[in-house]
Write a structure and sequence with these properties.
This protein is of the alpha/beta class. The chain has one domain: P-loop containing nucleotide triphosphate hydrolases (Rossmann fold, 3-Layer(aba) Sandwich), CATH 3.40.50. Helix content is 51%, strand content 12%. The protein has ten helices and five strands, in the order βαβααααβαβαααβα. It has a five-stranded parallel β-sheet with strand order 2-3-1-4-5, with helices on both faces. α2 crosses α5 and α3 runs antiparallel to α5. The N terminus is likely disordered.
Amino acid sequence: MSPPRSPRTPRARGSSLVVGLLGGIASGKSAVGRILAGERGIVIDADRIAREVLETPGVRFDLLTAFGGRVFGLDGRPDREVLAKTVFASPEARAKLEGFTHPAIRARIRAELQAARKAGAPVIVLDVPLLLENESRHGLVDECDEIVFVDAKDDLREARASASRGWRPGELARREATQMPLAAKRSRAGHVVENQGSLLELEAAVRRLAREIAPR
């Protein structure tokens, strides 16, 4: 059963339904977002935007200045894995990276949200990992009509992270220790999607959710 949610201002008829996703690493938020958006909706993927921002000339210069050439691969592009190991090992390094990347990422998310609304997308999904952690800076939570938490057990998520990302045991927990506790995130959601089984089961669960939150 979905937890109670705070009342929100009713959407105008014909306006986009904006859904914010919460959940742990490797919980399946991306899959839920794709299914929920469907063919006509739009997913705004903060991880994709972050990758694009890292490739911009200004940020590449900041990376070189802050961390040196070791965070670049042989092809001259930022090595995201080396960079992640660097910043997750040091709060100071992480704060430095976020200081020159997060403003650009937030601006792009806002621009894409505005463009999606202007295009009349029926559903806009915000797949933003730090949606709650950085709420005071980006204000995106207030843009959401619905907040959805994607739930998956820790051992299952760790197995997924190992298979898809090559992470060693304990890496997932180490990275999540820098984020808001999952229980707190779940308490902020109006709906919960269980992702403990197959993709077919997940698709069925998300379709039920889509019918539940569809405008009457």
